[in-house]
Write a structure and sequence with these properties.
single chain; alpha+beta; 5-stranded antiparallel β-sheet
Length: 95
């Protein structure tokens, strides 16, 4: 997969049924230790630093604009990419 985090990346944990993210980490390992410690369920996702996921996906040819609505602020603010590294956890264990 062609993906680059030129300015680094962070890991964000979003707990199951959580409205907001509950943790931000500098490494996957640190995040996983915290997830295991508290037996959490949710999603851990890698995000580029200093760049929105929409722009990152465009720059890495992981998304292409096919409709005018793909340029709207509403679309961009809700954009996520399955190409981001991500892991699912249940009760602290990777599933």
């Amino acid at each position: 997969m062609n993906k680059e985090f030129n300015n680094g990346s962070i890991w964000v944990f979003h707990g199951e049924q959580g409205r907001f993210s509950s943790g931000v980490f500098t490494s996957q390992q640190i995040a996983e230790e915290w997830i295991k410690k508290h037996k959490l369920s949710g999603l851990l996702t890698e995000y580029p630093l200093n760049k929105g996921v929409y722009d990152w996906a465009l720059e890495n040819d992981l998304f292409s604009i096919k409709k005018d609505s793909h340029k709207s602020s509403q679309f961009i603010q809700g954009f996520t990419s399955g190409s981001q590294e991500h892991f699912h956890y249940e009760y602290g264990e990777l599933i």
